[in-house]
Amino acid sequence: MKVTPSNLKVLKEKLKDFEGVNIPSEINEKEANHVHVVLIRSRQISPTKIKHNAIIQKYRLNAWEGTIKQRINAQGYGTVEILHHPEMVEAVVADDFNEMKAKAKSLGMEVSNTTTKVEVEEFLLEKEIEAGQ
Fold first, then answer.
1. β-strand pairing of 2-3 with 27-28
2. Under the phi-then-psi rule, with left for phi > 0, alpha for psi from -120 to 50, and beta for the rest, what region is 39?
3. Domain spans of the chain?
4. Of 33, 40, 34, 31, which is closest to residue 11 (Cα–Cα)?
5. pLDDT tens per residue, the chain (133 residues)?
6. Under DSSP, is residue 21 helix (H, G, I), strand (E, B) or coil?
7. Among 10, 82, 102, 104, which is least packed, fewest CB within 10 Å?
8. Using a CB cutoff of 8 Å and minimum separation of 24, what contacts does 75-80 make?
9. CA–CA separation, 24 and 36 (whole Å)
10. What are the strands, taking DSSP E only, across the chain?
11. Phi and psi of 84, rounded to 5°?
12. pLDDT of residue 58
């Protein structure tokens, strides 16, 4: 089974100017408890052209937090970005829910702190059905 990386949306936006860098949109569920990092080495091959070499590297969470995070820039990578961090997943889900609430509110739903995700999803589904008729 595949899982969407926790930082995919932000990372794609950050790296859109890096030609030749492909970011995977899914990771294996068995690897979801690892930190996935995009390491990019940039090399100027002519006065107007820069070549970017990207590597996706996986680290155990305790190894990443312990030593690797502090030492990785010394290895010569110009850009180091986190693609997936197991502790970021909850924040991404919360951001998605906040986006859903904002959309529902803009469509006329009264949203409060006690509004549940199910209520918002049902409201948005109703609005989609109404728009389709």
1. antiparallel
2. beta
3. 2-84, 92-132
4. 40
5. 777 777 787 888 888 777 777 888 888 888 888 999 888 888 888 888 888 888 889 999 888 888 888 888 777 777 888 888 888 765 555 567 778 888 888 988 888 878 887 788 888 888 888 877 5
6. coil
7. 102
8. 76/41, 77/39, 77/40, 77/41, 78/40, 78/41, 78/42, 79/15, 79/18, 79/38, 79/39, 79/40, 79/42, 80/37, 80/38, 80/39, 80/40
9. 11
10. 2-3, 27-28, 34-46, 49-60, 79-84
11. -145, 130
12. 92
Residue 104 has what DSSP assignment? H
Residue at 6: amino acid letter: S
Please count the helices (runs of H) and the strands (runs of E) in the chain.
5, 5
Contact status, residue 104 vs residue 120, Cβ threshold 8 Å = yes
Distances (CA, A) of 38 to 57, 79, 81, 90: 6, 8, 5, 21
Cβ atoms of 86 and 35 within 8 Å: the answer is yes
Task: Indicate the residue type of 82.
Answer: I
**Alpha-carbon dihedral of residues 75, 29, 16, 22, nearest 10 degrees?**
70
- Identity of the residue numbered 59: Y
